[in-house]
Amino acid sequence: MNRYPLWKNLLIGIVLLWGLIYTLPNFYGEVPAVQVSSGKATLKLDASATMARVEESLKAAGIAHDGLFADLTSVRARFRDTDTQLKAKDAIEKAFNPDAADPSYVVALNLLSASPQWLTSIHALPMYLGLDLRGGVHFLLQVDMKGAVTKRLDATAGDLRTLLRDKNVRHAGIGREGAAVVIKFRDTETQARARSVISAANNDLQLVEGQDGADYKLTASLTPLAQKTIQEFAIRQNISTLHNRINELGVAEPVIQQQGLDRIVVQLPGVQDVAKAKDILGRTATLEIRLVDDTPGGLEAALQGNVPPGTELYTERGGNPLLVKKQVVLTGERLTDAQPGFDGQTHEAAVHLTLDSAGARIFKDITRENINKRMAILLIEKGKGEVVTAPVIRSEIGGGRVQISGRMTSEEATDTALLLRAGSLAAPMEIIEERTIGPSLGAENISKGFHSTLWGFVAIAIFMCAYYMLFGLVSVLALASNLLLLVALLSLLQATLTLPGIAAIALTLGMAIDANVLINERIREELRNGSTPQAAIHAGYDRAFDTILDSNVTTLIAGIALLVFGSGPVRGFAVVHCLGILTSMFSAILVSRGLVNLIYGKKRKLEKLAIGQVWKPGI
């Protein structure tokens, strides 16, 4: 009656062993490390080759390491002390970034768990500690407000070109000059007509008529109110973009807020992958579409140092030089979505872009007017442009669906799509300050949180053993397994533990023991009603299950509500709370009953249970 089949006992044992293994890393400390990751979106890090280069650079510098570790995005070297770590960083930096002005890799200080290699190999890593317990990384970003205005003027030049073409107004050239867009005309009548058309379509521009030699011109500049609006939008858009990018990092409870007129503070609590965080935040990658200059002799002259006016020299992914016009046809502002996929004809990896209505119209016009010409798609990152692909325009492309393909792997397509999907920055940003900050409440909070949970557990254990005797001890063991599984889950998910999280663990202990109290009291009730000990155990667990399930489900609903609608510390509390409910159900029902079955299951003639006083004479 009270025996589990062998498979169920094995299942419980395997789950508890898994919990123990994934809890172990939290008992090891951390050691200094140096991390190497890609510094450019178009540069894919080869783990094996990078590990070999790191080891070679350390060997050449006579620096010993305690292990090399690699994942999909980085390579990390572990060291015994901080002095060796600093020396290693300098040696690796020189080996990987010979040109300090244009670094291809991010080499950063980091911390790694001191867990044995066999634990790390199965992704058994310690939990992160939040800003209030451990500290984190602090970044101060400077937003280029002039860059935001310049970016809008470049887009405005393209919009005006399209507007005048749609209204059949001929012009002699449109281009940005400084902080204004200059439009040239052959006669005053066309100039006046263009002014009327632009004034009716755009209220953010102030127009000034003038003359440039034989040509007449209109100088369009943004009004002061429009410039202020653009700058305010740039801050809001960049903060939103940073939120999206940090979400891709999986950092819990980040702090992102404006400081002053043109700065943004970013605090990442408990983050270990400092290099990856710096890389993601420091990227200012935006998409630009330009036409390739195929003028005969132009590329040859550029290779000899005589770059034709209005063009720039780039290099394609294959290493071939490419002469690209400076005029930007389309920017990432018109991008609404980017997803990795495959080319329907060649089945090569590709990135599928979706443009907004204005971008779709501009792209359709450009492709219609430049059939059989090449169009370069550039990724502008940290002030430097790289050609992602330069396809030939075979036909007019409408509908706002654009595909980037050509010599890229599936991983590169995914990375490029992720970066573009995270949102284009409304203005360039630069990290002007980076530091590791101490915990806001200090190590004292860790000590107090740990001791409060420990003494709460001890108090519960003493009460349960005194009141329910052997069944109380079983309940305490089940409670310990609950705590073990909860910590293992948090470690596996790489969650960030904060003070509210510690509070949720303490609450979970109280709720988990409540289920065992219900079971024990139900068994006592069955004994008082005259049931045999074996029947009382069976009925006690079965009949208490519905009550336990109902109470935990209702509590889980409240926890999910906190998780969905809460933010910051509230969500941190809710995550631990919801996981704790799931682990408490497992430990209170399966683990405790498995232990009771092992103790009493084989005893056919059982006369008494060690469950304390049941308040009935003779039992």
Automatic annotation (TrEMBL):
Residues 313-427 form the SecDF P1 head subdomain domain. It is found in: Cell membrane. Its main location: membrane. The keyword Cell membrane applies. Gene3D superfamilies: 3.30.1360.200, 3.30.70.3400, Multidrug efflux transporter AcrB transmembrane domain. Keywords: Cell membrane, Membrane, Protein transport, Translocation, Transmembrane, Transmembrane helix, Transport. It comes from the Bacteria. InterPro entries: SecD, SecD-TM, SecD/SecF_arch_bac, SecD/SecF_CS, SecD_1st, SecD_SecF_C, SecD_SecF_C_bact, SecDF_P1_head. It is a multi-pass membrane protein. Residues 1-109 form the SecD export protein N-terminal TM domain. Residues 235-294 form the Protein translocase subunit SecDF P1 domain. It holds the Pfam family Sec_GG. Residues 428-599 form the Protein export membrane protein SecD/SecF C-terminal domain. The chain crosses the membrane at residues 454-471, 476-495, 574-596. Part of the Sec protein translocase complex. Interacts with the SecYEG preprotein conducting channel. SecDF uses the proton motive force (PMF) to complete protein translocation after the ATP-dependent function of SecA. Forms a complex with SecF. Part of the essential Sec protein translocation apparatus which comprises SecA, SecYEG and auxiliary proteins SecDF-YajC and YidC. Belongs to the SecD/SecF family. SecD subfamily. This is Protein translocase subunit SecD. The lineage of its organism: Bacteria, Pseudomonadati, Pseudomonadota, Betaproteobacteria, Rhodocyclales. The gene is secD.
